[in-house]
């Protein structure tokens, strides 16, 4: 039957040119020594000389390989390509109808692929174990239905980040440590096909005229993509995975991110409608903390979330999620975070949550906090509580308003009640290192007061950070807000010492 172009595209970049028919089996990309077993079964294959192994060129293939024995790896790739070609050429209309159903028919599709794999192996001079056959079917299923070689990494809950530096180098973050994975793409075309599969459902694009983009996966995981000519190593993709199950404050306490007293205090602050800014470096866990803080917002509040790529997963029922939009091909139609913050003020929000402030939207966010939208939350990149205030000043000035520095600082001091500084420690763990109160202005300076902090005692023999949390022994000035909102938090709670 004639080949379907859409099906070819879904198969991850298989060439349209069918190879010439030949009665001889396909030549392997690397030489192998085929020997007959004494029982007369199919020949098996082993590696040959190391020199020939290194000098033999790799044959083109459209699928990812798993680094095991090199020659075995290439044979598996050729078999995958052969099975794919057979599927394209021989698939019936009924089987195509099953394929169109996608993920909901995954088991049926795997059964169909298994049939074609069996046909191909029956005509092949190579044998495969049951486990290898199942792996072959799984890999082809992932190419058809998911994100190809990325699927095993995305399904592994212990992996928190995937960093693709071109088609042949994929790093992962596991338990806070970076590792080089044994997964790779065949070439740039294969990787670009997967990138298109990520972006198409979101209505976003990446090409030479727009070579970088922020996106998200179906589960909310954050994706950043940058391609040549900006990236010199090929298409580069960074995926920040989020837990399939929303983390609670108890989880953060168990992870050692903060102490139980700090958790109780932060819950009280959210319920007392304080404006909170979470600051920290890249990968320090700001978004996770923001998600946990948002879980304390009462069900009765109307919440509007504003993000570049929707990552927050709030559990409340009355949530409106807004997402910015890049410009179209003609350079028009962009909707920025600042536009969405302005619009949210007309949506009768009780709380506004901005995923991250980076530029001029900081001014609109501060205006909202100062005009009755108490209890708003946001994040920003900074190395310390003092640094984040300086960054806010700079971002406000980026709005194009020629405001005096004192006026900007007054806005910041009156809008922000609490700063939560989060850091990633050397051992890969995330810690809330400071909980700092913004007390107001004294002259031209914003006065800050640390309430809780993390103190690192030493690094043990395994490289793990050992430390403790302590209270500074000072009650915050906003204690009256706790009383107004019916929150009982006695002043003795803030007595100095370890927590």
Supply database-style keywords.
499 residues, Rossmann fold, 21% strand, 18 strands, alpha/beta, six-stranded antiparallel β-sheet, Beta-Lactamase, 3 domains
Through-space gap between termini: 72 Å
Q: How many separate helices?
A: 16
Give the tally of β-strands.
18
**Strand coverage percent:** 15-25%
Tertiary shape: elongated
| Structural class by secondary-structure content | alpha/beta
Q: What's the domain count? A: 3
CATH architecture of the largest domain: 3-Layer(aba) Sandwich
Strand arrangement in the largest pleated sheet: 11-10-12-13-9-14-15-16-17-18
> Major sheet: size, sense and barrel closure?
10 strands, mixed
Q: In CATH's first tier, which class of the largest domain applies? A: Alpha Beta
Helix content: 25-40%
CATH topology of the largest domain: Rossmann fold
What does this structure look like?
- With 499 residues, this protein is of the alpha/beta class.
- It has 3 domains: 5-49 and 56-145, no CATH class; 152-240, Beta-Lactamase (2-Layer Sandwich); 249-498, Rossmann fold (3-Layer(aba) Sandwich), CATH 3.40.50.
- The chain is 33% helix and 21% strand.
- It contains 16 helices and 18 strands.
- The strands form 3 sheets. A 10-stranded mixed beta sheet has the order 11-10-12-13-9-14-15-16-17-18, sandwiched between helices. It has a 6-stranded antiparallel beta sheet with strand order 5-4-3-8-7-6.
- A hairpin with a 2-residue loop joins strand 15 (430-442) and strand 16 (445-459).
- Helix 5 (106-122) packs across helix 6 (130-145) and helix 12 (337-344) packs parallel to helix 13.
- The chain is elongated, with a radius of gyration of 28 Å.
- Residues 1-70 have low confidence and may be disordered.
């Amino acid at each position: 039957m004639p080949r379907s172009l859409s099906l070819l595209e879904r198969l991850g970049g298989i060439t349209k040119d069918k190879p010439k028919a030949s009665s001889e089996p396909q030549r392997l990309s690397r030489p192998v020594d085929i020997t007959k077993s004494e029982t007369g079964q199919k020949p098996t294959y082993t590696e040959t000389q190391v020199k020939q192994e290194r000098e033999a060129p790799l044959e083109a293939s459209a699928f990812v390989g798993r680094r095991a024995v090199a020659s075995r790896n290439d044979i598996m790739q050729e078999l995958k390509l052969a099975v794919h070609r057979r599927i394209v050429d021989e698939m019936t209309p009924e089987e195509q109808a099953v394929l169109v159903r996608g993920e909901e028919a995954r088991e049926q599709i795997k059964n169909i692929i298994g049939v074609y794999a069996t046909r191909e192996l029956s005509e092949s001079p190579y044998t495969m174990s049951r486990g290898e056959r199942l792996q072959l079917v799984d890999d082809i299923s992932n190419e058809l239905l998911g994100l190809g070689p990325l699927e095993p990494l995305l399904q592994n809950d212990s992996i928190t980040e995937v960093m693709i530096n071109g088609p042949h180098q994929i790093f992962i973050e596991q338990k806070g440590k970076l590792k080089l994975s044994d997964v790779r793409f065949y070439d740039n075309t294969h990787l670009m096909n997967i990138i298109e599969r990520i972006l198409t459902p979101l209505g976003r694009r990446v090409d030479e005229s727009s070579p970088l983009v922020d996106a998200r996966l179906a589960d909310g995981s954050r994706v950043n993509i940058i391609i040549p000519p900006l990236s010199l190593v090929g298409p580069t993709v960074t995926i920040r995975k989020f837990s399939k199950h929303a983390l609670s404050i108890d989880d953060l306490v168990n992870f050692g991110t903060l102490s139980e007293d700090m958790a109780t205090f932060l819950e009280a602050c959210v319920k007392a409608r304080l404006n909170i800014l979470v600051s920290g470096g890249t990968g320090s866990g700001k978004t996770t903390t923001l998600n946990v803080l948002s879980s304390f917002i009462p069900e009765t509040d109307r919440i509007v979330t504003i993000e570049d790529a929707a990552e927050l997963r709030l559990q409340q029922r009355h949530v409106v999620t807004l997402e910015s939009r890049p410009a179209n091909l003609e350079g028009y139609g962009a909707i920025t975070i600042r536009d969405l913050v302005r619009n949210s003020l007309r949506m009768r929000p009780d709380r506004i949550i901005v995923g991250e402030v980076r530029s001029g939207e900081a001014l609109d966010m501060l205006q909202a906090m100062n005009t009755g939208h108490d209890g708003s939350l946001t994040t920003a990149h900074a190395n310390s509580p003092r640094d984040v205030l300086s960054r806010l000043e700079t971002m406000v000035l980026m709005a194009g308003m020629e405001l005096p520095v004192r006026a900007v600082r007054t806005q910041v001091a009156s809008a922000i009640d609490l700063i939560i500084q989060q850091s990633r420690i050397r051992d890969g763990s995330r810690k809330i290192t400071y909980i700092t109160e913004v007390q107001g202005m004294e002259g031209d300076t914003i006065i800050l007061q640390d309430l809780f902090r993390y103190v690192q005692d030493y690094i043990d023999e395994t490289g793990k950070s050992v430390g403790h949390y302590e209270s500074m022994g000072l009650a915050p000035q906003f204690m009256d807000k706790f009383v107004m909102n019916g929150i009982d938090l006695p002043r003795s709670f803030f007595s100095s010492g370890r927590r």
